[in-house]
Amino acid sequence: MSEQTVLVINCGSSSLKFSLIAPDSGEQFVSGVAERLLTEQAFIKVSYQGSKQQTALTEPFDHQVAVNFIVDFLQQAGLSEKVSAVGHRVVHGGESYSQPTIIDDSVKASIADLGKLAPLHNPVNLIGIDAAEKAFDGLMQVAVFDTAFHQTMPSKAFIYGLPYHLYKQHGIRRYGFHGTSHYFVANQAAKELGKPIEQTSVITAHLGNGCSVTAIDNGQSVDTSMGLTPLEGVVMGTRSGDIDPGIVFHLIEQLNYSPDAVNSLLNKESGLLGISQMSNDCRTIEDAILEDNDTHADMTMDIFCYRIAKSIASYMAALTHFDALVFTGGIGENSDLVRSRVVRSLALLGLTLDEQRNTDIRFGKRGIISTDESVLCLVIPTNEELVIAMQSSDIIAKQQG
Ligand code: AMP
């Protein structure tokens, strides 16, 4: 085992994912996820040495109980001595954080303050940080922000067409998310191209339950499809993506929706789920198309793929040159159907898929799916945990001089 290992914690409102990673080698020693936290059904699943075990969590079924379970597990497996730091995924870093940051009381206070911009995420990220601080007393804790990579966006990309004081006084601007994933796959694409990242310009499509597309010019994020919140952009699993803001007033004034009901509609009941009236899961929609010839599922998929293609094409305005299109995320890595439909709309950008390569590269494989004549199109499995481990270890090394 390498000298340094980082425990990576990704806290959601009712879940907590973790993994213990050696940043130098990328080796993952143990990983797991606690789900249904804050309910009596809370459990934790741990993958270790090729086997998986599931254990019910005890009262009060919260994030602290999950973290304590992880600490005990690491101790029993003889791994706890090796944990040199804890790296946390934090969703919103606002304009204050463009780099991973060692957590102290003032950083915690700003993460709490940024909860204004990410009320569903930052407060639970803080719960994870507090729980880990208690459990790993004395270890350095690092925050790696989902928004940080996009802090290089120019004002023409991040300012909304709204009165400027809303930005200056209230921070209402586009921030973008999935930053660690876009950063990781762009760097991997540069390696594939044999170019330094500083000279590499790619468009990365992170397509999972949440979907975002990013334009990366000479290694820097210059535009991305998500905005102030992860609701903006392309159509997603349950989120609408871009809509006419006038729809919100129509729902409230004409159809008597409450603000809460609109929020839930746009975030949880729209997207693939809302259009298909079937599922937010891309596989279910694919099955309905391929096995049942379901024309409504087919239309849903067309809407999803067209919006992604349109977003990719729009980034021709953001790039100085275009080296490659990269697919990642659960759908981007696995759905040859989505990739095929997206790229079919992008022939004018010089992209053509090799359908055999496209079918072959799924389920964790990486590689080229375009024809030899095409602009390069790649599938690269993302690894946000590894980025968090590497960035946490780097910042600690710098701090220790
Ligand atoms: P993520 O949020 O990155 O875990 O991605 C979740 C999405 O990936 C869901 O919509 C899944 O349906 C989709 N997905 C996972 N595996 C496959 C697959 N084999 N084919 C198509 N979509 C998949």
Q: Write down the secondary-structure element order.
A: EEEEEHEEHHEHHHEEEHHHHHEHHHEEH
Category by helix and strand content: alpha/beta
Shape: globular
Q: Tally the structural domains.
A: 2
Defining key terms:
alpha/beta, globular, six-stranded mixed β-sheet, Nucleotidyltransferase, domain 5, eight-stranded mixed β-sheet, 2 domains, 401 residues, binds adenosine monophosphate
Helix and strand arrangement:
Elements (H helix, E strand, L loop, with lengths): L4 E7 L4 E6 L6 E8 L7 E6 L2 E6 L6 H14 L6 E8 L10 E2 L2 H9 L8 H14 L4 E6 L9 H4 L5 H7 L8 H15 L8 E6 L3 E7 L2 E5 L21 H9 L4 H10 L2 H6 L5 H11 L2 H20 L9 E5 H6 L1 H9 L10 H6 L6 E2 L7 E4 L4 H16 L2
Parallel strand pairs: 1-6, 6-8, 9-12, 12-14
Antiparallel strand pairs: 1-2, 2-3, 3-4, 4-5, 7-8, 9-10, 10-11, 13-14
